[in-house]
């Protein structure tokens, strides 16, 4: 017969063995749950320029807009479809005024703000955001890790001049569209191409002082398919600088009334809106004096009618 202290020791080892078996079994079960994110194909690699192999921006890309929804709802608004890919009500096509970024945190950005080739940007694409009527989804679960191939980045870099922003936008918003990166950015590019940028905002060499109403009016005149309740102007910072113009679209790309994210409050309360001019540091061949070159920003005027892919 076992002595009491030996029996107690044996019982302790049996209990510990049962506990570790339970923990290991639970981990195996969790990794096989449907809908879990799994790594992308091992053959797909990211560029070493600004990203790691998993598309994680390095170096703190300033244009990634890590808090790009800070001026509107930060929740799903109680929507039961919260963060389910492909389940949303409409798109917000968000155009950013690049000179405002270049005037502040992007003043040292060699890609977007200080191009030696003389290129300068006016309105660029910030993102294509799936929206609920109130609130919005974000960082939706996908079957594969949200990886944006170099070929996709290169296809949209002309209107989104930041690798970090492109990667961030797909992870935060593209995953909620129900589209893969190729479809999502092709859709975003086509929608951007359909918007006529008003003449006064194409490549202004001088600063402008205007109002949010005048900015909206200019977009309505250049894009008569939109109504006033389908466009929102965003301003902020010192002097009420122009930041964004948001245009609301159906899932098929047709103009539609904006939801509460854009209409619940005025996103530009300044009486006057300051519009910084476009910027470049291009130089002449002698590299002695700066010679700005008159080049248009990424403005597309074609009003395409091509079919947009629906959410998967």
Structure description:
- With 312 residues, this protein is α+β, with helices and mostly antiparallel strands.
- The protein has a domain at 81-293: Ribonuclease T2-like (Ribonuclease Rh, Chain A, Alpha-Beta Complex).
- 26% of the residues lie in helices and 12% in strands.
- It has 7 helices and 6 strands; from the N terminus they run H-E-H-E-H-H-H-E-H-E-E-H-E.
- The chain has helices at 4-31, 98-103, 150-156, 163-172, 181-194, 212-222, 260-263, and strands at 90-97, 123-131, 208-210, 231-236, 241-249, 273-275.
- Strands 2-1-5-4 form a 4-stranded antiparallel β-sheet. It has a two-stranded antiparallel ribbon with strand order 3-6.
- A hairpin with a 4-residue loop joins strand 4 (231-236) and strand 5.
- It starts with a helix and ends in a 37-residue tail after the last strand.
Detail the topology: elements first, then pairings:
Elements: H1 4-31, E1 90-97, H2 98-103, E2 123-131, H3 150-156, H4 163-172, H5 181-194, E3 208-210, H6 212-222, E4 231-236, E5 241-249, H7 260-263, E6 273-275
Antiparallel strand pairs: 1-2, 1-5, 3-6, 4-5
Quantity of strands, as a count: 6
**Global Rg:** 25 Å
Q: Approximately how much beta-strand content do the residues carry?
A: 5-15%
Strand order of the largest sheet: 2-1-5-4
Features:
disordered C terminus; two-stranded antiparallel ribbon; four-stranded antiparallel sheet; single chain; alpha+beta; 312 residues; 7 helices; Ribonuclease Rh, Chain A
Summarize the structure.
By secondary structure, the protein is an alpha+beta fold. 26% of the residues lie in helices and 12% in strands.
